[in-house]
């Protein structure tokens, strides 16, 4: 399945942008309904109070100022002041509420994206760069927060004020009202035509922010190689290129986002000009009063001024929409490795079987082609073969890190896909070539994912270590279980990492233990020790050992030779060696 977030679905994406996007974003806000409603009411109060201002002013000019009845001016002034003070408090309430909605949205979205990332299969992480994912979680969600916290209610308030002003304009004098509103129609057409382009420019800009983040992450992760090979210039150049691309797309997005303001201002001024010219003409022929013209100009201003603000809000909206599309692509991804119904028959002697299994990585040829073999309970299997032959891929299918493209993998006679991830990982332990550890103590690392022993006391844990023989490994760490593991720096060697991963896997007592080059960085004396620990595992434990060092597999019951898409059983260690030599000579 294509999990690459930066390719595919382009046509679909275009169609989904806009209304569909907003609808799905609103779907994520159901819990904010109450707060949004209160904020909306506060916003309506602010808008309405601001709208009545011009009509009171016009009325004051015509009825009190021109007739010098100043007590009326004072009363209307007091009413206006009261309205503006209430509008101020309502505005403050709305801003505060929306600020908290924005923060909660940020919190919820980041949680949803992170949760989804936890659910997605291994393949997803092969196809996407960590830096880009980090950028989506940090940067893109923040753009949505900015829109909610600063723009949404302002956006709605502006729309309300504009509608209100338009109604006042048309009802005061409809011909003049329609003439004043004509430039708004031109603005609407302009916005409609340019919006898809603006959206595209924003999406491109956000994408390059993701690339920039990936580049930084890659070079920081590989700084040792960079220093060792003195290739700072190489990463500097690569970073320079991506940074340049980011700069260019950001400039283009900036141009796109900022072109609205001057265009909106031009049309607003046009509206004002029309009103002034026609208004003065209507006054000269006695169809209009000065007070009405003052009200009229005030409403034209309260129609067009927010439109100028709308220009910058529109760009915040476009950025938020593009950011939401990037987040939504993760949230809506389906895991292509679902759990299926179990239909198998248990064969008591066989633990795991491949039935005509083929597998290809996305956009690649078959790495495994129609493979069939059985792994019997309690036996030790060695998988050997040349580099790139397909050993790790076979092991990954055994552990269901990937699903086969064709054929079936059976665990205990049942389709491996019918097991829950918890059941599967309890039965199958996998020690990878480069084990994953996280910063913490050895105890935390070895109990990682072990739900049964999660709360076990150190005393009881040490007893298990004694019984299983793991104690001798733990003694190699200065502070035993409490030894700190710092994976961000150089605090731990690869061999030590492999020892911790070994303890973690053995402690789970899985039915099937896969060791993929798991002892490649361990000295031969310790390797002997590991072998003794493996011997102490329950008799029924099946072991799959992938190794290049042939002494590691000397005790295997069965040896499989993996190369060019095939898995062939070798009769003996000598035959496996011959196969390897032949393979090497052929290449
Ligand atoms: N994530 C991936 N995406 C695409 N191709 C891959 C991926 N992982 C491995 N391959 C390809 O699949 C083939 C088999 O790789 P695999 O890692 O299974 O070999 P291996 O026998 O374990 O090699 P080694 O002994 O070096 O560990 C290789 O051609 C490799 O390039």
Keywords:
587 residues, alpha/beta, ABC transporter transmembrane region fold, Rossmann fold, 2 domains, four-stranded antiparallel sheet, 19 helices, 12 strands, 63% helix, binds adenosine-5'-triphosphate
Helix-strand blueprint:
Layout: H1 10-16, H2 19-27, H3 33-65, H4 70-119, H5 122-127, H6 130-172, H7 174-221, H8 223-228, H9 232-258, H10 260-284, H11 290-331, E1 350-360, E2 366-376, E3 380-384, H12 391-398, E4 406-411, E5 414-415, H13 421-427, E6 428-431, E7 440-441, H14 442-446, H15 458-468, H16 471-474, E8 484-485, H17 494-507, E9 512-516, H18 524-535, E10 542-546, E11 558-563, E12 566-570, H19 573-586
Parallel strand pairs: 3-10, 3-11, 6-9, 9-10
Antiparallel strand pairs: 1-2, 1-4, 4-5, 7-8, 11-12
Helix pairs in contact: 3-4, 3-6, 3-11, 4-6, 6-7, 6-11, 7-9, 7-10, 7-11, 10-11
Bound molecules: adenosine-5'-triphosphate.
Adenosine-5'-triphosphate is lined by residues 126, 361, 364, 367, 385, 387-393.
Measured distance between first and last alpha carbons = 32 Å
Q: What proportion of the residues is helical, as a percent range?
A: 55-70%
Q: Could you name the ranges where pLDDT drops below 50 across 5 or more consecutive residues?
A: none
Oligomer status: single chain
Based on the coordinates given, report the CATH architecture of the largest domain: Up-down Bundle
Q: Report mean pLDDT, rounded to a whole number.
A: 81
Structural class: alpha/beta
- What is the total number of structural domains? 2
| C-alpha-based Rg, rounded | 35 Å
User: Helical stretch count?
Assistant: 19
- Going by CATH, the homologous superfamily of the largest domain would be ABC transporter type 1, transmembrane domain
The gross shape turns out to be elongated
Present as ligands are: adenosine-5'-triphosphate
CATH structural fold name of the largest domain: ABC transporter transmembrane region fold
Per DSSP E runs of 2 or more residues, the count of β-strands stands at 12
Q: What top-tier CATH class of the largest domain fits best? A: Mainly Alpha
Roughly what fraction of the amino acids lie in strands? 5-15%
Largest sheet: 6 strands, mixed
Neighbour order of strands in the largest sheet? 6-9-10-3-11-12
Membrane topology: Multi-pass membrane protein
Keywords: ATP-binding, Cell membrane, Membrane, Nucleotide-binding, Transmembrane, Transmembrane helix, Transport
Domain ABC transmembrane type-1: 37-318
Transmembrane segments: 36-58, 70-93, 155-174, 180-198, 261-282, 288-307
């Amino acid at each position: 399945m294509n999990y690459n977030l930066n390719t595919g679905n382009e046509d679909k994406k275009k169609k989904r942008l806009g209304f569909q996007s907003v609808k799905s974003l609103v779907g994520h806000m159901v819990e904010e309904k109450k707060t949004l409603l209160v904020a909306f009411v506060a916003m309506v109060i602010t808008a309405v109070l601001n709208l009545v201002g011009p009509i009171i002013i016009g009325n004051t000019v015509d009825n009190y100022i021109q007739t010098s009845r100043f007590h009326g001016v004072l009363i209307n002034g007091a009413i206006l002041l009261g309205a503006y003070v209430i509008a101020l408090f309502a505005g403050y309430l709305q801003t505060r509420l929306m600020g908290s909605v924005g923060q909660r949205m940020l919190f919820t979205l980041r949680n949803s994206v992170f949760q989804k990332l936890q659910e997605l299969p291994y393949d997803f992480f092969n196809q996407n760069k960590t830096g880009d994912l980090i950028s989506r979680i940090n940067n893109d969600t923040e753009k949505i927060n900015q829109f909610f916290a600063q723009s949404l209610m302002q956006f709605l308030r502006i729309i309300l004020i504009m509608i209100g002003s338009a109604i006042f304009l048309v009802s005061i004098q409809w011909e003049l009202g329609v003439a004043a509103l004509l430039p708004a129609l031109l603005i609407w057409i302009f916005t409609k035509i340019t919006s898809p382009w603006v959206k595209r420019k924003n999406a491109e800009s956000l994408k390059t922010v993701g690339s920039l983040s990936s580049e930084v992450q890659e070079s920081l992760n590989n700084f040792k190689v960079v220093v060792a090979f003195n290739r700072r210039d190489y990463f500097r150049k690569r970073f320079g290129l991506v940074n340049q691309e980011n700069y260019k797309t950001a400039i283009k997005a900036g141009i796109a986002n900022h072109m609205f303001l001057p265009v909106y201002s031009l049309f607003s001024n046009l509206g004002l000009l029309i009103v002034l010219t026609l208004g003065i003409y209507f006054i000269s022929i006695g169809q209009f009063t000065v007070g009405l013209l003052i009200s009229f100009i005030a409403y034209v201003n309260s129609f067009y001024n927010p439109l100028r603000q709308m220009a910058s809000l529109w760009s915040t909206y476009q950025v938020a929409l593009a950011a939401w599309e990037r987040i939504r692509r993760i949230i809506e991804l389906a895991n292509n490795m679902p759990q299926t119904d179990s239909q198998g028959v248990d064969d008591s002697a066989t633990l795991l079987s491949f039935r005509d299994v083929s597998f290809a990585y996305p956009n690649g040829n078959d790495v495994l082609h129609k493979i069939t073999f059985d792994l019997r309970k309690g036996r030790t299997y060695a998988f050997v073969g040349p580099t790139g032959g397909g050993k790790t891929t076979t092991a990954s299918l055994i552990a269901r890190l990937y699903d086969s493209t064709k054929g079936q993998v059976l665990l205990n006679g049942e389709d491996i896909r019918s097991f829950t991830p918890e059941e599967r990982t309890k039965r199958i332990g996998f020690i990878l070539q480069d084990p994953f550890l996280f910063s913490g103590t050895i105890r935390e690392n070895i109990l990682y994912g072990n739900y049964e022993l999660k709360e076990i006391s150190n005393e009881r844990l040490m007893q298990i270590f004694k019984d299983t023989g793991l104690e001798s490994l733990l003694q190699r760490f200065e502070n035993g279980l409490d030894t700190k593991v710092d994976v961000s720096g150089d605090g731990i060697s690869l061999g030590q990492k492999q020892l911790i991963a070994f303890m973690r896997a053995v402690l789970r007592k899985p039915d099937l233990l896969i060791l993929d080059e798991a002892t490649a960085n361990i000295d031969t004396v310790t390797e002997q020790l590991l072998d003794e620990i493996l011997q102490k595992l329950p008799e029924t434990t099946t072991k799959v050992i992938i190794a290049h060092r042939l002494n590691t597999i000397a005790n295997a019951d069965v040896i499989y030779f993996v190369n060019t898409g095939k898995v062939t059983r070798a009769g003996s260690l000598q035959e496996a060696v011959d196969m390897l030599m032949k393979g090497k000579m052929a290449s």
